[in-house]
Amino acid sequence: MIYFDNAATSLVNREVLDIFNKLTLQLIGNPSSNHHLGFQALEYENKAAKQILNLLKIPSYELVFTSGASEGNNFLIQGIVKRNFRQGKKIITSKVEHPSVLEVFKQLEKEGYQAVYLDVDRYGNLDYSQLEANLDDSTILVSLMSTNNEVGFNFDIEKISKLVHSKSKAYFISDVTQGIGKTDIDYSCLDGFAMSGHKIGGLKSSGFVCFKKNLKINGLILGGGQQDNYRSGTINAPLNCSLAAGLRIYLNSYPQRKKQAKILFDRLYDKLSKYPMLFHINTNRENSSNFIFNFSLLTSKASVVVESLSSKEVYVSTTSACSSKKEQFSSCLKAMGYNDVISQNSIRVSFEGNEDIKQVDDFVSILLDVVNNIKRR
Ligand code: PMP
Hints:
Blueprint: E1 2-3, H1 14-26, H2 36-55, E2 62-66, H3 69-83, E3 90-94, H4 99-110, E4 114-118, H5 128-133, E5 139-143, H6 157-167, E6 171-175, E7 192-196, E8 207-211, H7 237-252, H8 254-272, E9 279-281, E10 292-297, H9 302-311, E11 314-315, E12 317-318, H10 331-335, H11 340-344, E13 346-350, H12 357-376
Parallel strand pairs: 1-11, 3-4, 3-5, 5-6, 6-7
Antiparallel strand pairs: 2-8, 7-8, 9-10, 10-13, 12-13
Helix pairs in contact: 1-7, 2-7, 3-4, 8-12
The structure holds 4'-deoxy-4'-aminopyridoxal-5'-phosphate.
4'-deoxy-4'-aminopyridoxal-5'-phosphate (PMP) binds near residues 98, 175, 196 and 207.
């Protein structure tokens, strides 16, 4: 099998699963219980949070465990906006964010907030002057992702942070789901961020948000007051401990994976660019995480090719797993200025960074077979 769909979900790390299984049997108490078994589970939970904050070099931040980045993005955006509505109504994001950001912005627009959706150019560069022009006293929130999930370009988080904080009182938060452990991020320049465990070798339905201690934000779930009243509900200490271990392993392997991802990316780029009549490469070499490679088919339908590849045990995505079932085209590629043919027929290849270069060679020869076969029909 060739699994090149790591941006949709990564393969679970064996050690992460072992920790989860072991602790699930060991930590039997409810972390809220007032007895030894409860204290024991809570202690593990608190240690996991501390370990994560230390790994990300932001020991003084607040951490709330979530079910993943969709929940995290919803929590941060709604929690901040609802708490700070008296300060202003302007909220800023970009046209190429994940649906778990864009849909919340659309909903807030219906509720009377003034949403600004920033443009990007063909290479995925943000329009920084448009951002600057929209920063004023009424701006309360800027939400911009670190790495795009469809095309793989990065936004300059440090530059955005400086701009937002020097020109306004707005909070700057980021969806770092595709950037954490895949790019270099200075988390301390963010007021808050959300991530997902299942993109980094962790279990599905795990994740966390971090935010500055003094950030004004409403809680997400009311109830028993767990997680400092931010998210009530019984805590899954084993899951959160496995996530902390998963992050440690993922960050430790980052330098090696980063190097290998570049080798894989370059090989795929060089091979596919030999066939300009068949493929259009959408990921810009100069501004890419190297973990995501996006290209479009010029002679066949992406959905047909992805299905045919799947029957040969080769797994890639059409656009992103979240939007590929709903939409006929990639709104991200449209926002980058691409025409219908390109934005309707894109394929996303995404690496973990441990794959062998031979897998890229095999992928390209199977892809060429599939595309040429369809052409002949
Ligand atoms: N943001 C980005 C950039 C993503 O790639 C994803 C996963 N497709 C999410 C958010 C949502 O993550 P989760 O599956 O954990 O809800």
